[in-house]
## 1
Amino acid sequence: MGRGGSRAAPAAAAPPWHALPDEVWEHAFSFLPSASDRGAVAGSCHSWLRAERRSRRRLIVANCYAAAPRDAVERFPAVRAAEVKGKPHFADFGLVPPAWGAAAEPWVAAAADGWPLLEELSFKRMVVTDECLEMIAASFRNFQVLRLVSCEGFSTAGLAAIAAGCRNLRELDLQENEIEDCSIHWLSLFPESFTSLVTLNFSCLEGDVNITVLERLVTRCRNLKTLKLNNAIPLDKLASLVRKAPQIVELGTGRFSADYHPDLFAKLEAACAGCKSLRRLSGAWDAVPEYLPAFYCVCEGLTSLNLSYATVRGPELIKFISRCKNLQLLWVMDLIEDHGLAVVASSCNKLQELRVFPSAPFDAAEQVSLTERGLVDVSASCPMLESVLYFCRRMTNEALITIAKNRPNFTCFRLCIIEPHTPDYITHQPLDAGFSAIVESCKGLRRLSVSGLLTDRVFKSIGAHANRLEMLSIAFAGNSDLGLHYILSGCKSLKKLEIRDCPFGDKPLLANAAKLETMRSLWMSSCSLTLGPCQQLARKMPRLNVEVMNDPRRACPLDSLTDESPVETLYVYRTIAGPRSDTPAYVQIV
Amino acid sequence: MEAAVGDLMATELRLGLPGTADDDQPQMKATVPSTPRGKKRTTDTDAVEDAAAEEDSKHDVEAAPPVAKAPVVGWPPVRSYRKSCFQASSKQATKDEAPSSNTAASAAANTTIGSFVKVSMDGAPYLRKVDLRMYKGYRELREALEAMFVSSNNGGANLSEFAVTYEDKDGDLMLVGDVPFEMFTSTCKKLRIMKRSEATGLGSLRQ
């Protein structure tokens, strides 16, 4: 490298490699696959820093408060695709009160100014307003991809702005957002000349859509690969939509229930038979089992099946899944039960990801027979299984040890035993041994959620063995500060730690303060924290934002708090932007 | 289970603040940590839990008590989006299934399970959702609505300028506060906060 051309040029030598022009480096860096690789080269020297940042096309801001939007835009002026994440993960379960923050507006405004060529924008757990969507539609002439995941604050009026304004839109992907229905026929605002849609996902929309308009849109967008409908689309309309889009690769059905009519069944079956490329299937709310066989013809080709909203029980469900021999991803309700999972184990040998959701999470009584046995069977027979989310009501150490031995290739293991503090139901021991086996065996484990009765011992194992662990979720576990100390002093790769309802105090935080700066964020709620040490932590670590949050319903003026005042929720994250200025009254940055 | 409880007691497991009394409910029913917030939530259902405790002592120690529990916020960790799907499906399931597995308690529980209702406020750009199960009574609910809608932007206004109404099962618009709170939570489908000036004919709107 570098010296190759020197034979042809007589006097002028080729520049040494470290003096090559930026354009050469920018081109070289374009081959780097991951953001962390790019971050590494940027840290090497000033010229690489300059070349890398000026050519960065894809930016992921994993915590919207870690950097100021305008700084990010200025630093990476060539970005074409940006993803920004906001609220902490536990916001998904209602642990973050309303009006906490994570507004998308500053990011959209900064992008509008600094990234006029922006093509893709993705927001997760943020507050996105209709004004934001209008700004997006107006500011980026080549805007192509909008992905909103678990966001809130916008309505169908905002969607109308996107439909009307984004001439080159390829993907509109709305996943599990809270969208206010303004009864605006936003779909009709896609112009008749608009044909570029590749992905349309409005499954989380609660209101009606104009089905005629949808049919016309689907018909003219010949490149449509992903279509995920909402609950308002009835079964007969599904059939006609699918017939108009036989090239579909991913389908989310609408309302799947209807009284059984042989004509409708035949229509549906015929429509599915035309879908030779269908690989991913989801939806099926309130699915009526009699219609499932209409999809049998596509089962063989399915790689991804999400029936986690389908309250279908027993034989029909199992018959369906057993035909899906090429499944790589399966999300299902616990209605599948152990014997259903045994069938999955024997039929779906290519399975890589399994999620089993609880059908009755708030009922105390065990209504379905889903136990540790289902997970043991699947882990034994599916050699490529690497990601698991499993809700159940009982577990044993022996089962976990078996699972760990069968599947050392787990990268994500999330077990939720529904009743807190549940021990091994046979030996009545804590589940320390079981989870220890998991972390000792699964050397590539990146994400772990623990549950059941657990003592500090399990955290000693996790701290010592989980060297690749990036995200750890703990609830109702541990005995003392030691548990937290083990985690913070171990777990070399830890990025996100979220803890609720554990008897952990602030001493381990102060003792491991430096660790917190190597992590993206720490969440602790309903633990044993007090205000004074949190303030101490903030003073010690200026590059952390230490946010203290109390129950907004409690009228408690923050001035009257003392060092001993209990802290209900602590959220700590590293940032180069300093304290944020949009905290609600119940959040204090100490 | 008892051995485990003994161990925990020996290590002085405390989830509460320094100075609060330990939660003296047996660990097998301990879904609620002994923080003040958790304690507040159980007082309503204490009678139910005491009755359950008596029943429990007759069952196997490790079996879960077969009555609805006081809900812990955000547990189990299912997305609120998913919760509202469960409402529909669990109500569907209890309608379709034979009555054999449904005790009166779980039937009662089904009316309180999934009590997310939309809340609209005149003049607010978008709606919110609240979980009625989270509140002990009208005062808590009112405080929560105030916290949600009447932010510092409105310059210290409070809910006394508004009437809180709800839409019941029959679709009628009712004033919040007339019936016992439990009856209200089971019949309320939607909440609407309307300006006083619009709430004519609703008689004296006491706090």
## 2
Amino acid sequence: MACVLEAPLRMSVLSEVTASSRHYVDRLFDLDPQKVLQGVIDMKNAVIGNNKQKANLIVLGAVPRLLYLLQQETSSTELRTECAVVLGSLAMGTENNVKSLLDCHIIPALLQGLLSPDLKFIEACLRCLRTIFISPVTPEDLLYTDATVISHLMALLSRSRYTQEYICQIFSHCCKLQHWHSCGFKSLPQPLLCANGPDHQTILFNHGAVQNIAHLLVSTSYKVRMQALKCFSVLAFENPQVSMTLVNVSVDGELLPQIFVKMLQRDKPIEMQLTSAKCLTSMCRAGAIRTDDSCIVLKTLPCLVRMCSKERLLEERVEGAETLAYLIETDVELQRIASITDHLIVMLADYFKYPSSVSAITDIKRLDHDLKHAHELRQAAFKLYASLGANDEDIRKKIIETENMMDRIVNGLSESSIKVRLAAVRCLHSLSRSVQQLRTSFQDHAVWKPLMKVLQNAPNEILVVASSTLCNLLLEFSPSKEPILESGAIELLCSLTQSENLALRVNGIWALMNMAFQAEQKIKSDILRGLSTEQLFQLLSDSDVNVLMKTLGLLRNLLSTRPHIDHIMSTHGKQIMQAVTLILEGEHNIEVKEQTLCILANIADGTTAKELIMTNDDILQKIKYYMSHSNAKLQLAAMFCISNLIWNEEEGSQERQDKLRDMGIVDILHKLSQSSDPNLCDKAKTALQQYLA
Amino acid sequence: MYYREIKIQTQCHGKTPKDAASVRATHPIPAACGIYYFEVKIVSKGRDGYMGIGLSAQGVNMNRLPGWDKHSYGYHGDDGHSFCSSGTGQPYGPTFTTGDVIGCCVNLINNTCFYTKNGHSLGMEKLGLQTPGEVVDANFGQHPFVFDIEDYMREWRTKIQAQIDRFPIGDREGEWQTMIQKMVSSYLVHHGYCATAEAFARSTDQTVLEELASIKNRQRIQKLVLAGRMGEAIETTQQLYPSLLERNPNLLFALKVRQFIEMVNGTDSEVRCLGGHSPKSQDSYPVSPRSFSSPSMSPSHGMNIHNLATGKGSSTHFSGFESSCSNGVISNKAHQSYCHSKHTTTSLNVPELNNINVSRSQQVNSYTSNDVDMETDHYSNGVAETSSNGFLNGSSKHDHEMEECDTEMEVDSSQLRRQLCGGSQAAIERMIHFGRELQAMSEQLRRECGKNTANKKMLKDAFSLLAYSDPWSSPVGNQLDPIQREPVCSVLNSAILETHNLPKQPPLALAMGQASQCLGLMARSGIGSCAFATVEDYLH
């Protein structure tokens, strides 16, 4: 309301200010270069810390004129430098200022300025470039439009501590990955979420960034050290090439890991501790430093745990937790150590308490601050919980026993922020690997409900983890299995198998496979109907072996227990036999063929289904072929088929035995009964006995 | 001292927790250490694995695990719980067993403690006690700690220093700066650096309280004293401040004793003219065990100015400075640095603050209950009343300091072969005569003012010089060291200033003394943060 009242007043003030601003701009057009210089200097003093003045000058068109003066060869170096300084000041203002500057093509002009021989001018240009590039509105790619720019910047690194500071800062902002760690969970592929990141890293790396920047880590200037460190943390992030190089670089006889360890000493500024911990984390994840190295176990990990403590700023706590989650993600020993360090699991519970009731009452500013970070805090905590509980059952138990943990996850699943939802699902997924938790807390909190909800219309990245979690909830011992089925899971999972996204296809078919395991006939029929034979064939010809294997697994689970086998084969027999033939003829690995032969063995176990094999000479020849295959696994699987076909007590066994003898199967069985492989040998002897009876 | 490594072989024969046997360290944790840490390696958990590590006060039942009884805290291996003076524990950390290294860290700054397992901190616990307890169940090895306690201490040192640096000072603009400038200015005036004081006052826009002439007078007297020309110094004092020495017979006596010593030295003007030396041509203060940076200023104070003005200066300089102004500061400081640099004593010792004349050898490790005085007494003893007994303290102090300077002095004496009273027979006679006068004066003083053991000892020490053929290398020879002129000079200067109603101590020295005293007081009150702050840290 206050704004409305004030508006007219402001207008009049604005016009006054504009008048005085116009004067500054007019002076830039003076014919006397000395007066122009003085005008620029006065302008510089007028804009410092005055956002309104900056906006006015931009509106009045000061930028193109300043850029013109800056680029003009006839301008004195002093004038050009002052112009760069004023432009830098303007860039320090709002994001809109930066956008206006970008619109005037300031970047090429400033990059051109770097070619000047004058150091002061170069520094002013770099400072301005730095300010522009650290703004979120500036596309990072602008630095990489001209290939010569990077090598020129590398050369300027030796000029002064200011060039060092600014260039390092530019590099670390222009090489940014989205702050999102790749998922390392089983069954999840590693999505490359930012296509530009590795490119930038590689460009900088190929221009010798590591060698050029390493020695800046021991600079006498704190700012230079810090910016160089930040540069490395960005360069090494998820980049094995850089990480492996860093580990062997030494400065003044000290290896970089040692220098990083010194920088995370507890008396160093928090920013420095945190950033060097990030460097060491990247190097560890890249395999450049072992996970049991003391610099990880006794330095980096405790440092990151400290960053999660209540004493740290909210931003630091977020970054600390995310980095720690990444560090320990795949190493159970690190997960165990982190879980006992400084009560981390309890400490993380505090991340969910923002904004606190206190902050709401006492102080609006604080409330605003807390609100802004609340999502970030929650998602970071979920991520870290997910990593902590990835492998160890005791840790999972401790996490779930933390106050209101399951409620928090359940709430997290329905939050509006995608980041939080995703992290909550990851956390749930990690905890869902526990058989005990599936049977207890997951059931108590009906976790499947919000999970099923998440699966509707979620973006792919969430779907991947959520469906993966669903796979675990559908395991036969899970009490959630029934209600999930009732809530339309089959339809949902079948639709996932049609996804473009490979991980989703795998998870969809995997969940269906779990669902079909020892299921009742109705469920099996529902699955088959939901999937449709076309889709089944589609999946069987999927380029991804994982999809193929899980589809075969599904078939195998569907084709279990005699009545089910006969029923399914009576309705889908033709298609299934076709598919089996196709796979056995195709170029597939041993596991796939073994799985397929097992399906045949299951079919051979049916009563009526047997005939589908017996009447198919092609298939019989194939079974015969695999009995003499060089791989024992395939031989064994083929023998299962034969055994089931010639089993005595069943109807028509005599005819089948005869037919197979005519095919020369018995001769092979005799040969196999002499085999050195005890499994094969036994199996062959048992089969031969069927003939004797 | 932050930690000790003791090797104790623990043998527990207990069958039930009731029979648990504890080992408690014999020395308590000193509050002044700030942070205390020890580690235990579990060599064997025994049959039942009942083990606890923690803290307890003296007198707590040693047959029970730490934490169960009042005034004890413990972390138990069998269940991983922590016990705070209670039979029921709180879930705290993992269990521990054979092969594990368990550590216990007490932070007396924020009254917390935490345990570590195999080098990993397990999380902070609040300590209820205000007074620190003692170490229990310590079975230390001589190995470096598994947990990085040094790093933890670095953090706290930085924290404490940041706290000091960010201490809120007066919020009115310029007030703080003006006060600092006043302190510097008064310091310069006090010690008579008139040119510097004038320049400083000019550039900071201040007024000097004392008249320039008066400063110059004091400076003149000080120069005479420091040059060993005591006779002239006494004469000048009597001229310029007629009633001063009359009112201070003890001071006059002290000056005369010093004059006698300077006669033996051959530097006093009365013997120098007899010895044929030109009093002006010889630098009477030729060799000093310390290096002085500013030749235009009186030596020992010159270096102080140097410290303040340029931010440079070594620790040697400081010991000289303090000895001339405050004994309390010195003894405290000497002890603190000992405590910090060597990490060996068990406690921060305070008795010597009360008992100024204790010799240095006594100061170390004498953790007795000498500290009976109240704080106000410390201040007056240590800083404010230097004029009344500072001289005595000063000289006794220097006796010890001189031992350390011996090597340097020997070089000097071998270079300049000195002769009694400069080698002149007439001078020796004059000296003997003066000695008799001094004896008479001492007797008269005793009659008028009563017995004064300090005066008696002073005179005895001075006369002892004559008992040796080479007084300079005699056991009492250190009296001849030019450095001994400084306390005399300082006391005289203070006395003069007092007659002008000016402080006998410059506020700067007072503030320093007070800061040091505060640290000592904190140590005694168990405020751990004093372990990470020393006055020296802020003196350069």
